[in-house]
From TrEMBL:
Specifically catalyzes the NAD or NADP-dependent dehydrogenation of L-aspartate to iminoaspartate. The active site is at H212. It comes from Cytobacillus stercorigallinarum. This is L-aspartate dehydrogenase. Belongs to the L-aspartate dehydrogenase family. The iminoaspartate product is unstable in aqueous solution and can decompose to oxaloacetate and ammonia.
Length: 260
C-alpha cells in the first residue's frame, strides 16, 4: 500500500515514524508528502525516505493508493473531492470537515462513482460502536459531549478558574474550535448528526489531560464514557490517542476480519 501524507505536524510525524521507520503496518509505506512549510517537508522527505511535493495537486496525481490527511479541516474541504475522483482512498484526521450533512452526502456519491473509500478514525474518543448500534434501529435519543482541556490546549488565554468556553451543538462547536473539537463530529456521524449532538467545551487551568466525557441514551439503555487523554508531547491540543487511532485505521484497513 503506497501512502501519501498531507501535513507534517504531530500526527503526520508520528505516522511517518510508525510506518516508514518502525514498520508497524504490514506492506504499507509513505512514498509522498505535502506539508505547508517546504523546508520542513524537505527535511521529513530526507529523514523518512520519501518524495516531497510542491503542491497537494501534485501529490494527488502521483502513484499512490491512499492519502492520509493530518493537516486541517480546511485542507480536507478543499481537496477531498479531488483525491477521491483521482481514485485514491482517503484517511482523515480532521474529521470536523464532515460537519455538514450535504457535503458528506456529496462525497459519498463521489466515492460510489469512483470506487473509493473515506476512512474516518475514531480519533481521541471511543464509544462509536455503541452509537452506531443504537442508531441502526433509530433507538438513539440523546448524545452529549463535554470536553475539558487545559487553556493552553484550547484558545491559549490564561485563566484563573474553570471556564465554559462553548455550549451548543457540534455543528457550531467545530466552526468555533476547528482544531479542538473534531471528536464532536465523529460522534455526530456515528450518532445523531452535528445539529443534534450537544457539546460543552471547558478550559480548566488545573487539567493536565484532554478529557472527553460522552453520554448517550436510547432504547438500549444508557452509556457514560470518559476518555482521559495524555496530550502529544509537541502539540498539547492533540491527544496521543488521536494519532494512535489513525495508525490503527491504516493497520486494519484491508483486513479480512473486521472487529467492531
Ligand atoms: N479526530 C480527532 O480526534 C482529532 C483530530 N485532530 C486534527 O488532526 C489534524 C492534525 O493534527 P496535528 O498533527 O496535531 O496538528 P499540527 O498542527 O501539529 O499539524 C498540522 C500540520 O498541517 C500542516 N498544514 C496546515 N495547513 C496546511 C495546508 N493548508 N496545507 C498543508 N498542510 C497544512 C501544518 O503545517 P505548518 O507546520 O507549516 O503549519 C502542520 O504540519 C488537525 O486538524 C487536528 O485538529 C487532532 C486531534 C484529535
Ligand atoms: O485531541 C483531542 O483530545 C481532541 C481534539 O483535539 C479534536 O477533537 O480536535
Amino acid at each position: 500500500m503506497k501512502l501519501g501524507l498531507i501535513g507534517g505536524g504531530n500526527i503526520g510525524k508520528f505516522l511517518l515514524q510508525s510506518i516508514n521507520n518502525d514498520q508497524l503496518v504490514d506492506g504499507a509505506q509513505f512514498v509522498g508528502l505535502y506539508t505547508r512549510n517546504q523546508e520542513k517537508a524537505n527535511e521529513l522527505a530526507e529523514q523518512y525516505d520519501l518524495r516531497s511535493y510542491q503542491t497537494i495537486d501534485e501529490l494527488i496525481a502521483s502513484d499512490i493508493d491512499v492519502i492520509v490527511e493530518a493537516a486541517t479541516v480546511e485542507v480536507v474541504r478543499t481537496h477531498a473531492a479531488s483525491i477521491l475522483t483521482h481514485g485514491k482512498d482517503l484517511v482523515v484526521s480532521s474529521v470536523g470537515a464532515f460537519s455538514d450533512n450535504d457535503y458528506f452526502l456529496q462525497l459519498e456519491t463521489i466515492c460510489k462513482e469512483h470506487g473509493t473509500t473515506i476512512h474516518l478514525p475514531s480519533g481521541a474518543v471511543g464509544g462509536l460502536d455503541i452509537l452506531k448500534a443504537a442508531k441502526a434501529i433509530g433507538a438513539l435519543q440523546e448524545v452529549a459531549l463535554t470536553t475539558t482541556k487545559p487553556p493552553h490546549a484550547l484558545n491559549g488565554v490564561s485563566l484563573e478558574k474553570k471556564t465554559v468556553l462553548f455550549e451548543g451543538n457540534a455543528y457550531e462547536a467545530i466552526k468555533q474550535f476547528p482544531k479542538n473539537i473534531n471528536v464532536s463530529i465523529i460522534l455526530s456521524l456515528a450518532g445523531l448528526g452535528s445539529k443534534e449532538t450537544k457539546v460543552k467545551i471547558i478550559a480548566d487551568p488545573k487539567a493536565s489531560k484532554n478529557s472527553h466525557e460522552i453520554t448517550a441514551k436510547g432504547a438500549f439503555g444508557n452509556v457514560k464514557l470518559v476518555v482521559e487523554n495524555d496530550p502529544m508531547p509537541n502539540n498539547p491540543k492533540t491527544s496521543y490517542l488521536a494519532a494512535l487511532s489513525v495508525l490503527s485505521t491504516l493497520k486494519h484497513k484491508d483486513q479480512s476480519i473486521k472487529v467492531g
